[in-house]
Amino acid sequence: MADPHPDRAHGVAPTDLTERVVLRESAPPSASDDSLEGIAEFDFGRAARRGYPEAVLCEGKTMDHLVAIARAVGERGADDPEALGTILFTRATAEQAEAVCRELTGAIHDPVARMVAWPGPVPEPSGGTVLVLCAGTADIPVAREAWLTAQHLGRPTELVVDVGVAGLHRILARVDQIAAASAIVVVAGMDGALASVVAGLASAPVIGVPTSVGYGAAFEGLAPLLSMLNACSPGVAVVNIDNGYGAGHMAAQIAATG
């Protein structure tokens, strides 16, 4: 049967209800892999089923387990890597990233974002623009994680750094970019006020990412988390502390249709 949505492996989700039903019925199940028994049950059918592939959180995994998962992904995608979509390995240490890249030829490692992407090349962008606004230089690792996630899920993306509210003129100078975006990710620690400010300037949904950047009373991200949850500007959604991947993924879905 012809693929009713040829771009789905790049992260473009189907919009028509009938199309969604067809994809669910035709999507391969999350087939078990003998090499992963007792380790994981990787969802190889996720890209076909919902338009976005599964990701791998490296943090907390042993090196043996991570290598086994990467090897299984490589073997499943050897004939047609695009069928799986781009698999992202997040929160990877340098050693973990090196091990994954050894297993997956052509994988790309971004050490700042602590992310490995395979296949490495970014897909042809479609949909609306995802704008990632980063409050301070210390927030860049989380911002890059969001930016790269949206990029590898097939969206045109822009990353702007060091536009926190301590110098309000910096964000006000970006109003044209803010107005043109289809989804906006705001990454901020300290008081987390940037999300509310941006939402007051934007027509697009804003996804706040509180970071663990800040002094003692920031409580490792709890203070900006609460600030964003209490944003007085409507249209702000909030993900977990330091969760750039989750924010980038949500933004990519929002911006899928432009």
Description:
The chain has 258 residues and is an alpha/beta fold. The protein has eleven helices and nine strands. The strands form two sheets. The protein has a five-stranded parallel beta sheet. A four-stranded mixed beta sheet has the order 1-2-4-3, with helices on both faces. Strand 3 and strand 4 form a beta hairpin.
Features:
11 helices, disordered N terminus, alpha/beta, 9 strands, globular, 258 residues
What is the number of strand segments? 9
Give the overall shape.
globular
Strand order of the largest sheet: 6-5-7-8-9
Helix content bin: 25-40%
**Strand-residue proportion:** 5-15%
Please report the distance between the alpha carbons of the first and last residues: 28 Å
Report mean pLDDT, rounded to a whole number: 87
Assign the structural class, choosing from mainly alpha, mainly beta, alpha/beta, alpha+beta, or little secondary structure: alpha/beta
Compressed to H and E, one letter per element, the order equals HHEHHEHEEEHEHHEHEHEH
Biggest sheet record = 5 strands, parallel
Radius of gyration, taken over Cα atoms and rounded to an integer in Å: 19 Å
Low-pLDDT sequence parts: 1-15, 17-31
Annotation field: number of helices: 11
